[in-house]
Amino acid sequence: MPWSRLASFGYLALGIVLIQGLSPEPRESATGGAPSKPYRLLGIAAIAFWLLWNLTPVEMRNTGIPVILLWTIFGGWSAIRLIQRLARESRINGAVLQGALAGYLMLGLASGLLLCGLETIQPGSFRGIDIGSGAVGLDHSVWGLNFAELNYFAFVSLTTMGYGDVVPMTAPASMICVMIAVTGTFYIAAVMGVLISRLTIQETEEVRNSSQKP
Engineered SS bond to 131: which of 58, 142, 145, 187, CB 3.0-4.6 Å? Predict the structure, then answer.
């Protein structure tokens, strides 16, 4: 349980990193930087409701609804902004590949948070998990639950592996899992398209430069 609580702070760090890392750079034009303020406000709201959700008793199930809505929009918008950043890169290097990987991990973590929120709103949404719950104090809040298995299942859904050890049991759970799978597939396709196009341009430039040498 202590490790589970420590991992919960990863979501706080995730939100902060996304807000700071995906804000427009100073060299961007006014048009390109226009969505920056709404994006930051959305990120702050997502973090604030996540904190509120963690501190409320498990019985107050409705606190998970804004968490699901805000993090769905925030995670999707973050993925789009990251792909746009990758598309502006002229060359493929280690930093670009690390950014692409970080985006995929971000989607997995955000997906895990959606599943965790759904399980607190509608217990029994998934079969094969045991989130546990204490009886008194902070352990009686969402903070005291263990969401490790749901976070694992989020990455399984994102990669469309489907081992079968965890199974969605309700219509909302099934819909969210399908959404996660489609999002993961789309992200990989979009990023691969960007990387391949940039690599092709990069190789073409290298061939042209080598042919121009005396």
Answer: 145
Helices (H), the chain: 2-21, 36-55, 64-88, 94-121, 148-158, 171-212
Which amino acid is it at 52? L
Q: Long-range contacts made by residues 81-90, C-beta under 8 angstroms, separation at least 24?
A: 81/22, 81/35, 81/39, 82/22, 82/106, 83/187, 83/190, 83/191, 83/194, 85/22, 86/191, 86/194, 86/195, 87/194, 89/198, 90/198, 90/201, 90/202
- pLDDT for res 85: 87
pLDDT profile of the chain (214 residues), mean per 10: 64 86 59 69 93 88 91 93 86 85 92 93 91 55 85 93 91 95 94 86 72 65
**pTM of the full structure:** 0.83
- One CATH from 3.90.550.10, 1.10.150.240, 1.10.287.70, 3.10.180.10 for 2-212: 1.10.287.70
Neighbour-count burial of 60, counting CB atoms closer than 10 A to its CB (0-12 exposed, 13-18 middle, 19+ buried):
middle
